[in-house]
Amino acid sequence: MNQPEPTRPDEAILLIAHGSRRQQANDDLIRLRDMVRVARAGQIIEHSFLELANPTIPEGAASCVEQGARKVLMFPYFLSAGVHVVEDLKKFKTEFENRWPETTFQVCPPLGLHRLMVDIVFDRISEVESS
């Protein structure tokens, strides 16, 4: 597994999930945010939801900028590059760059078919096999 890069206090990571009516599903992103904050202590790490939960993506972006971010990495906590990642997040990126021209926004690739996904699949399968 790759080691985390050094902390950049003026760079933010905005974790983005779809959002759910089920709070337990939303809590997963909050726990991930907390884990990333530990791994990148001193860096701006926020979370947001596309719909059905708060904070919204614009609220998350505003929080990053208010904390001094000059660069915001918009990380889609999605499994594939569907409409939300390809179209919706790019639309938000353009909106944010117009609203905060002094800050750069970049949309990261979704989780997708990363090579570590195979390990995750087998780890989840082993949880069922061992119960």
In short:
The protein is built from four helices and four strands, in the order E-H-E-H-E-H-E-H. It is α/β, with parallel strands linked by helices.
Textual characterization of the structure:
- With 131 residues, the chain is an alpha/beta fold.
- The chain has a single domain (11-129), classed as Rossmann fold.
- Helices cover 44% and strands 18% of the residues.
- The chain has helices spanning 23-39, 57-66, 83-99, 117-129; strands at 11-17, 44-49, 71-76, 104-107.
- It has a four-stranded parallel β-sheet with strand order 2-1-3-4, with helices on both faces.
- Strand 3, helix 3 (83-99) and strand 4 form a beta-alpha-beta unit.
- The longest helix has 17 residues, at 23-39.
- It is globular, with a radius of gyration of 15 Å.
- The mean pLDDT is 93.
Q: How many E strands?
A: 4
Helix content: 40-55%
Rg on CA atoms, Å: 15 Å
Helix vs. strand class: alpha/beta
Topology:
Layout: E1 11-17, H1 23-39, E2 44-49, H2 57-66, E3 71-76, H3 83-99, E4 104-107, H4 117-129
Parallel strand pairs: 1-2, 1-3, 3-4
Quick tags:
Rossmann fold; alpha/beta; about 130 residues; single chain
